[in-house]
Amino acid sequence: MKSLLLLLLAFCQTVFGTIWELTDKNFEKKAFGQQGMYSFVYIYSPYCNFCNEMTPQFAALADLYDNTKLQLFQINGYANKRVSKKYEVVAFPVLKIFSSDGTDMGSYTGVRGTQNFIDYIHEVTGVSPSFPDSLVKQPTSKELEDIIKDTKRDVLVAFSQPWLKGWEFPYTNFYESLARYYAEALDDSATTFVRVDVSDAKNAEIVSKFQVSKTPSVFHFASYREHYDQANKLFKEDLGPVEIVQLLEGAEELVTESIKLSTLSDSRQKDVEESGEADNSFEEYAQLREL
């Protein structure tokens, strides 16, 4: 179990594309000169808390721009003072785009998130990322019911929001990496990963059926379960890949509660009928999505 977790964590942190580390000595030679290529450069300091928070968001780009017309570079601006002085860096982090001839095309100053970087890169250069096929399903309510009915499979249903730390970017977040690890590294075709964005109105029926009031929450439908809709629920504010693997492995001490969807649905319907109020459990999430 311990070795599995170590391998898992290493896999989830692996970047398969390339981000080149530059120095004062090779900056111009490496970043410029390749005809038709653009360079997105991250100037950071190892002592900068904002940099530490942003680095994973930048690193996620490596998998998305491999074999495109965008190169990714980073340079320690604290240690490489010539480059910092040349581009008038007075605070970290700094993100800049350059053309192949070294023309400074601008600095990014918006929200530091992977999708925001993608939007900016496309706006300035016209280069689009190459999104990988997702191994995490995002089904409709009916499709999810069909998935759960296959009792020979382990099914994980994660409820999250796009602004939660670790869950932000759907193509490279830890849950996607976890699904890829099981499918590719473990060659496991019997475990299905599902993700539900609770702030998306189209998922209101699923949110209501599962009675999700806190996120992130994960429901595990174990293979060969007695009842198809029987699951163990785990809620943890800092939920990560280790807890999810432990849940899959049957760690009962992590389980917040055990549920049956049919029982939840009957109870919810009865409450709605008695109160006379519509089921609007997803509306708070939807409002937050608009902020």
Describe this structure in words.
- The chain has a five-stranded mixed β-sheet with strand order 1-3-2-4-5. Strands 7-6-8-9-10 form a five-stranded mixed β-sheet, with helices on both faces.
- Helix content is 37%, strand content 19%.
- It has helices spanning 2-12, 27-31, 49-59, 61-64, 81-86, 114-125, 141-148, 174-185, 204-210, 241-248, 261-275, 283-290, and strands at 20-22, 38-44, 70-76, 94-98, 104-108, 154-160, 191-197, 217-221, 230-235, 257-260.
- It has two domains: 11-125, Glutaredoxin, CATH 3.40.30.10; 141-290, Glutaredoxin, CATH 3.40.30.10.
- α8 (174-185) links the parallel β6 (154-160) and β7 (191-197).
- It is elongated and about 65 Å long.
- By secondary structure, it is an alpha/beta fold.
**N-to-C order of helices and strands:** HEHEHHEHEEHHEHEHEEHEHH
β-strand percent reads 15-25%
Under the CATH scheme, which architecture of the largest domain would be assigned? 3-Layer(aba) Sandwich
What's the number of domains?
2
End-to-end Cα distance, whole Å, is: 41 Å
Question: Could you tell me the radius of gyration in angstroms?
Answer: 22 Å
Q: Please name the CATH topology of the largest domain.
A: Glutaredoxin
Mean pLDDT: 86
Please estimate the helix content.
25-40%
With strands numbered from the N-terminus, the spatial order across the biggest sheet is: 1-3-2-4-5
Strands, count: 10
Number of separate helices:
12
Which descriptor suits the 3D outline? elongated
The largest pleated sheet is described as: 5 strands, mixed
Class of secondary structure makeup: alpha/beta
List low-confidence stretches: 268-274
In CATH, what is the homologous superfamily of the largest domain?
Glutaredoxin
